[in-house]
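Notes from the 1:1 (GR / supervisor)

We went over the backlog. Supervisor wanted to see one worked example end to end before approving the batch request, so GR pasted a single chain during the call. The sequence is below; no edits were made to it. Supervisor asked that the structure be written out right there so they could see what the output format looks like.
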Amino acid sequence: MEIGIDSFAAILPDPATGKLPSPTVRMAELIEEVEVADRVGLDVFGIGEHHRGEFLDSAPTVILAAAAARTSRIRLTSAVTVLSAADPVRVFQEFATLDLISKGRAEVVVGRGSFVEAYPLFGLDTRDYDDLFAEKLDLLLRLGETPNVTWEGRFRPPLRGQGVFPRPHQPQLPIWIGVGGTPQSFARAGTLGLPLMVAIIGGSFERFRPLVDLYREAGKRAGHSAETLKVGVHAMGFVGETNTAAKDAFFPGWAHLTTNIGRERGWSPPTRQQFEAMAGPEGAFLIGDPKTVAAKMLQASETLGGVSRITFQMSTASLDTAAMKTSIELLGTEVAPIVRATRRA
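Structure output shown during the call:
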């Protein structure tokens, strides 16, 4: 199982003063977090894409390129690229360039986006939400096969064999599909034979098993091998020296962001009791001491029928940068060895 971190480059106010930290300082801390992850042997680091004031990740490939120059081993990916609101040609060029800078460590996870700010920002209609993604994914996949594509669609000018460069360092740029809870998205990923990254940011892992089964069944019907149909999980996660320390470090930032987003979507404010339930044995938060987190990761993999990758969304803990770096170190030096040793056995 590959183990990694996803960050949304969250910028959160100090709970005591209410003041936001400097974006410049927060960005420097984020690059340091990727360096720590690389040093302690984690497999992958992802940067999300949002177009909101709470996050600094509107240009994820720029951040990933900066991280590529400061790391040597860790794979670098988006988490996720909002492909529906982007030009697939530009996406391919940016990630191919990242692949050259990183000497073959780039990947891209594409999705429709759980936030819709990108659509009006770039002049797109949310009524075309799924059609935009399907068409642009088709073009992105074709660009991965050849630099000279002949293609025509509704949402961008046609291509008449023009060359799309540069080409990546890897023979083929890895493309994952990021999904939430829409069955059609799971089935599409399976039919295409693409690896699947499932965002499980609440509820339980068990709830997603039927959807993961749908993905595998669709892939099998389309003639793809079981080895091709990889499943990854993106989950809220944080590691501390103790269960209490981990939860106390993560909760304030999570509560702040969830309250703000929930206000927009008509949710009730989150409570500590709800958070404790999510961090408990039946919930989908991977939060606790190293042994607790490792055991829960292994259980999640078993529940979902085998998981190839788990990434921790821990950027809501960025209120405490020291705890953040300690968590990354514990994930690499204590959690990962337990998980890897158990999987090998």
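Supervisor's comment: The longest strand covers residues 231-239.
Batch request approved.
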